[in-house]
Every structure is written in structure tokens, then in C-alpha cells.
Amino acid sequence: xxxxxxxxxAAAVLALLFALLKSSWVSKQDAGNDKMKSIADNIHEGAxxxxxxxxxxxxxxxxxxxxxxxxxxxxxxxxxTLIGVSFVFGAICSGLAGFFGxxxxxxxxxxxxxxAREGLNPALGVAFSGGTVMGMSVVGLGVLGLSVLYIVYTxxxxxxxxxxxxRILQVLSGFPWALRPSRCSRASAAASTPRxxxxxxxxxxxSRPAFPRTTPATPR
Length: 220
Known about the structure:
By secondary structure, the protein is an all-alpha fold. It contains eight helices and no strands.
């Protein structure tokens, strides 16, 4: 029965493999004509540059908070300085989920738009597949990180004379605390891109196929 705990990280790995499979499928879809590809490349480059810059700032915040958590819980009998490690590990997992999600989202946008030229169902298939990557990445990395930390803490400090289950859970509580600032960074990064992934590209493609200019440019 003790080995049942290893099924949890195994399930998380399956979720990540499924996300990888969906990401590969979305990337293989047709991105449209050269103009669509050019616009999509610019959006992708800008979104990833924004996310990388934001993560640099967020890394400083994570380190400072982790140190404060470690120092603040140093003398608490029901906790431990490792709560800071849990916080950092949670931030890394959340950051990776945001990175993977933003990368596939910017790719899925143009492919959804191009698929919408053939019909609603193909467009929804691409859009939902792109969203699946983000969802499964969040779930997979969250469950994987939390379960790995639990197994490590239990093996190192558990046992009859070691930490109680309540103390292990208290130390693990640093992991989900890190998800809030990282989640805010993903939300702001998403807002920096035209990422209304389902209806917006579909409406645009069906109303103005291949981005034609319907009116002449206004001379300046």
C-alpha cells in the first residue's frame, strides 16, 4: 500500500505527456499564408519576450519571499525552514506551466484562425487543443511538484520519531502559496497578447478571410 503514493507522480507525468502530444499536434497544423505567419511570429516573439522579462522580476520576488518564509518558520515547532524550498519549487512549476501555455497559445491563435476558414469544428478543435496544453501543464506540474515534495519530506523526515503528517503538510503549504504570484504573471502575459483563443480568431477569419484589406490605406 505504501507504493500507491508513487501512482500520483506517475499520473502527473501522463498528464504532461498528453500535453506534449497535444502541443505537437497543434504545431503541425497549417498556420495559413505568409502574412498570417508573419503576424503570428511577431505576436509570439513579443509575448515570449514579455514573459521572460516578467519572470526575471518575479524571480527576485520569489527568492525574497522564500528567505522570509524560511526565517519566519525557523523557530516554529510545527513547521520548518524547508517551507521556503517548497515555495521556490512551487514557483518553478507554476512558471514552467505559464511558459508552456503561453508558447502554445501564441501558436494556436493563428492556426485556429486559419482552420476557421474551413469551418467552425476544425477551428474549435485547434482552439481547445491549445487550451488543453495549458490546462494539463498546470495540473501535471502542480501534482508532480507537490507529490515529489511530499515523498521526499516523508522519506527524509517521516517515521515514528520524525515529523507528523500535520507538520509535513505545513511545510508543503509553501508550494501552493507560490502559485498566486505566478498565476498573476500568466494572466498579465495573456492580456498582453490577442489571446481570446476561441471566438476571436474564428470570428475574424470567417468575416475577413486571410486578412484582406477591404479599404485603401488612408494617405498621411
